[in-house]
Every structure is written in C-alpha cells, then in structure tokens.
C-alpha cells in the first residue's frame, strides 16, 4: 500500500473552535476508515522559524530563556513564529533584530535549509518548521548584552552543542545543516 492508497478519515463536524493570537483549539467529530466515530481535539499554530546564526566560524546564540512548558532555562537558536502571509526572510530579519540586536545590513547571507517546511504534526501542534542559516558580516561587533553562548563550527563544537541543545526543533535544524553543510555554505 502506498501513502496515496491510505484510507482517509471524514470530518463530520466541528463542535469547538477557539482562536487566540498564539493558537487555535479545534474539537471535531471524525469518522475513521472503519466507520468508527471519534471526538478529536487538535491545536493549530502559526509556522515557526529556527535560525542557525554563524559569524566567523562560530554559532551565535541569544541569551537562554525560561521555558514555562518545561520549567527550565534552555539554550535555543534564534526563532519564532511566522505570521500568515508574511515573507519568511522578513521574519528571519525581525527575529535576529529582536534576539541578537542584528539589523538586516549585518546579514551577509540568509539561506533557507528547507524551503517546503517540515510538518510538525500531533494533536497538540499542527504547523510547519522552517530552518535557516544566516551568516553575519565578519566585521560586525555583536552586542554582548544579546549573546548567550557561542560554539565553534567544528567537530568538537558541534559535538558539545548536541550535548547542550535540548530543543528538538533546534536539534533538527542543526542536524539538517550538518548533513548539508558543504553544499549549502560552500565551506
């Protein structure tokens, strides 16, 4: 059986839809491929961007932030939500300005890692994740008030980063970068 041969479920009706700026909560009655009726709850969110920021062979991280969902401070690449109908590269520039104090003239290159986006799909998260590499101008002095950590872009730095980085989305983007580093960045 191929994916296109898989039986589809039917949406019978939507009995709840609650919208906020951050997410939409949806409750639906579905019928599965066996004719069984199910109550199904899901959350839709705006798509996300994770930005691997590099300057002079170092990964650059903003200050770690407290994450209420996991109850701890975490190291994360710059990132955020992509509002609907907004060019992704514009959002990347806004995120870098907010999280690292970088303006668009200080970005030498913005390279999309996955232009089609990856589906993040479960009942509690329906969105796409877009990864980017941004190379900062080598002569731009980053404001130390924004910088949380740096890691060398070499085998030892990447191995340490993979030990320290707990965010699954950040790790996915980093691993994609590692798999494609030569062809994407020309290094």
Automatic annotation (TrEMBL):
Keyword annotations from UniProtKB, A to Z: Hydrolase
InterPro entries xref list: NUDIX_hydrolase-like_dom_sf (IPR015797)
Domain of life the protein comes from: Bacteria
Name of the featured protein: NUDIX hydrolase
GO molecular function: hydrolase activity
Native source species: Spirulina subsalsa FACHB-351
């Amino acid at each position: 059986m191929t994916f296109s041969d898989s039986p589809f479920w039917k949406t019978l009706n939507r009995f709840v839809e609650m919208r906020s700026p951050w997410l939409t909560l949806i409750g639906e009655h579905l019928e599965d491929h066996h004719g069984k009726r199910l109550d199904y709850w899901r959350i839709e969110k705006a798509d996300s961007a994770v930005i691997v920021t590099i300057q002079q062979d170092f990964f650059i991280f903003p200050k770690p932030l407290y994450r209420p969902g996991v109850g701890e401070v975490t190291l994360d690449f710059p990132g955020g939500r992509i509002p609907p109908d907004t060019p992704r590269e514009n959002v990347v520039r806004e995120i870098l300005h907010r999280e690292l104090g970088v303006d668009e003239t200080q970005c030498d290159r913005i390279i999309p890692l996955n232009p089609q986006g990856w589906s993040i799909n479960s009942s509690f998260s329906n969105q796409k994740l877009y990864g980017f590499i941004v190379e900062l101008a080598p002569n731009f002095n980053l404001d130390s008030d924004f910088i949380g950590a740096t890691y060398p872009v070499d085998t030892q730095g990447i191995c340490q980063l993979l030990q320290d980085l707990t965010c699954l989305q950040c790790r996915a983007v980093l691993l994609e970068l590692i798999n494609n580093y030569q062809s994407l960045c020309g290094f």
